[in-house]
C-alpha cells in the first residue's frame, strides 16, 4: 500500500507536487498518469526517500521509506534505467545490489530469467540498448521480491514485444497480491494494463478512479444520427433537452440521450432514420480533455512526436 497525504514539493518557484493525496492498493496495477512535467517522477522520488517533501507525506506500508526496516525487500523501483555502471555486467550489477541489500545471490539468476536477460548477463551494461537497460532495471527492482513496486515509464525504449511483456509482468505482479504503481504519460499504454488510474496535472490530483470509471466518465457519449427529416428530429430532440450538432455531411451528432432513446423518440414522431450509431470518444481525447489545462510543456506541432502532441493536449 502506498499512501500520499497532502504531499507537496517545491523547487524554488516551481511547485512540482501540489497537495497530492491518493492511495495505491495492493493486488492491482495502478497507473500514474499525467503530461510531461506533471510531477510523476518527483512523486516517485519522494516515495523512495530520494527527496524530502516540502510538506505532507508519502508512506509505504504505513511508514516513510527511510523508516522501513528492509527497504529493498519491501519496495522495488525502476526510476532511471541508465544509472548502472557502464563497465559492469548485468550479473555483476545485480550481485552488487544483492550483497548490499542482504538478498540471497541465488535470486540473481531467477530475476535475470524473469526479464529475459540470462543470455547477455555477462556483457557490459554500457553496451545495452535502452530496452535491455529497462529490463535490467526491472530485474533490480524485483531482486528483493518486494511487496511494493514503483516503475517510472517502464515501457520506454521497449519494442512492441517488450511492451506486451511488461504488461503481462505488471499484471502478474499484481495478481500475486503486490502493490504495483506505474507512471506513464500515455493513457493508451495504461488503459490496457492498469486497474486503477491516478491522474495528475501540474502537480495536482485530477482524478483517482478505476480505469473503467475513468473511461466511462471522461469519454462523452454521443450518437450519430442520419435522417431525411433532420429538422423535425432536431426539434423533437431539442425539446427533450438533448444537444444536437450538425455534421458537415448532413448527419446530426446528438448528446444527452442514448441511441435507444433517440430511436424511440423518432418512432413516436414518425421520423425515418437511416443511421443511428453510438460514438465513443477515444481514450486520448478523454485524457486530453482532463489534462489539457494542466500541461507544463506545450510541444511544437512541427516535427513533434505523437507522445509530445498527446502530452501537449493537442
Ligand atoms: N530537481 C529539480 N529541480 C528543479 N525543478 C525540478 C526538479 N525536479 C523536477 N522539477 C520540476 O518539477 C516539475 C515536475 O517534474 P517531474 O519530472 O516530476 O514531472 P513528470 O510528470 O515526471 O514529467 P515527465 O513525464 O516529463 O518525466 C517540472 O516542472 C520539473 O521541471
From TrEMBL:
Membrane spanning stretches: none
Keyword Nucleotide-binding attributed: yes
One matching Pfam family: ABC_tran
Ranges where the ABC transporter domain occurs: 2-227
Domain of life the protein comes from: Bacteria
InterPro entries: AAA+_ATPase, ABC_transporter-like_ATP-bd, ABC_transporter-like_CS, P-loop_NTPase
Molecular functions per Gene Ontology: ATP binding; ATP hydrolysis activity
Keyword Transport: yes
Keywords: ATP-binding, Nucleotide-binding, Transport
Family annotation (PANTHER family): ABC TRANSPORTER, ATP-BINDING PROTEIN
Family: Belongs to the ABC transporter superfamily.
Protein name: ABC transporter ATP-binding protein
Organism expressing this protein natively: Gandjariella thermophila
Amino acid at each position: 500500500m502506498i499512501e500520499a497525504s497532502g504531499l507537496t514539493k517545491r523547487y524554488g518557484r516551481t511547485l512540482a507536487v501540489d497537495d497530492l493525496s491518493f492511495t495505491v492498493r495492493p493486488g492491482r496495477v495502478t497507473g500514474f498518469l499525467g503530461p510531461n512535467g506533471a510531477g510523476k517522477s518527483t512523486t516517485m522520488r519522494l516515495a523512495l526517500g530520494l527527496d524530502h517533501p516540502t510538506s505532507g507525506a508519502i508512506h509505504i506500508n504505513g511508514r516513510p521509506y527511510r523508516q522501513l526496516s528492509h527497504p529493498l525487500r519491501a519496495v522495488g523501483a525502476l526510476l532511471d534505467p541508465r544509472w548502472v555502471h557502464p563497465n559492469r555486467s548485468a550479473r555483476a550489477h545485480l550481485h552488487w545490489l544483492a550483497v548490499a541489500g542482504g538478498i540471497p545471490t541465488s535470486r540473481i539468476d531467477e530475476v535475470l530469467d524473469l526479464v529475459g536477460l540470462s543470455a547477455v548477463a555477462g556483457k557490459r551494461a554500457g553496451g545495452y540498448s535502452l530496452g535491455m537497460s529497462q529490463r535490467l532495471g526491472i530485474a533490480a527492482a524485483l531482486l528483493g521480491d518486494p511487496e511494493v513496486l514503483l516503475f517510472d515509464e517502464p515501457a520506454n525504449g521497449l519494442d512492441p514485444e517488450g511492451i506486451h511483456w511488461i504488461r503481462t509482468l505488471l499484471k502478474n505482479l499484481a495478481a500475486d497480491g503486490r502493490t504495483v504503481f506505474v507512471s506513464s504519460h500515455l493513457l493508451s499504454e495504461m488503459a490496457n494494463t492498469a486497474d486503477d488510474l491516478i491522474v495528475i496535472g501540474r502537480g495536482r490530483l485530477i482524478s483517482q478512479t478505476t480505469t473503467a470509471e475513468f473511461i466511462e466518465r471522461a469519454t462523452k457519449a454521443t450518437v450519430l444520427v442520419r435522417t431525411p427529416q433532420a429538422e423535425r428530429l432536431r426539434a423533437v430532440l431539442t425539446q427533450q433537452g438533448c444537444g444536437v450538432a450538425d455534421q458537415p455531411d448532413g448527419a446530426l451528432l446528438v448528446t444527452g440521450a442514448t441511441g435507444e432513446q433517440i430511436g424511440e423518440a423518432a418512432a413516436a414522431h414518425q421520423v425515418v432514420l437511416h443511421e443511428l450509431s453510438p460514438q465513443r470518444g477515444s481514450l486520448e481525447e478523454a485524457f486530453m480533455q482532463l489534462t489539457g489545462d494542466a500541461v507544463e510543456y506545450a510541444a511544437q506541432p512541427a516535427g513533434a512526436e505523437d507522445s509530445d502532441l498527446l502530452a501537449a493536449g493537442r
